[in-house]
Amino acid sequence: MDGDRRAAERFATTVDLFETGVRMRRQSLRRAHPDLSDLEIDALLARWLRERPGAEDGDGPQRTT
């Protein structure tokens, strides 16, 4: 059971780091585009999450499908 708890903690940390990264990217987009509405910033953020220039095939070596 201890392994399950550790895995859950690691997963929670991963989710927290992801959410922090998203907040940081949103702030960066807001600074770069102060004239855009929140909706437009959300659209840019969603596009970045889908396409992420430089990581189109993921974050590490893997088999592409």
Describe this structure as you would to a colleague.
The protein has 65 residues and is mainly α. 69% of the residues lie in helices and 0% in strands. It has 2 helices and no strands. Helix 1 crosses helix 2. The longest helix has 31 residues, at 2-32. It is flat. The model has no long low-confidence stretch (mean pLDDT 89).
Based on Cα principal axes, name the global outline.
flat
Question: How many strands in all?
Answer: 0
Enumerate how many helices there are, as a single number. Answer: 2
Distance between the termini: 35 Å
Biggest β-sheet description: none
* Low-confidence spans: none
The percent range for strand residues is: under 5%
Helix/strand/pairing category: mainly alpha
Mean pLDDT: 89
* Series of secondary-structure elements, N-terminal to C-terminal: HH
The percentage helix is 55-70%
Write a short abstract of this structure.
The chain has two helices and no strands. It has 65 residues and is an all-alpha fold. Helix 1 (2-32) crosses helix 2 (38-51).
Topology:
Blueprint: H1 2-32, H2 38-51
Identify the notable features of this structure and list them briefly.
69% helix, 65 residues
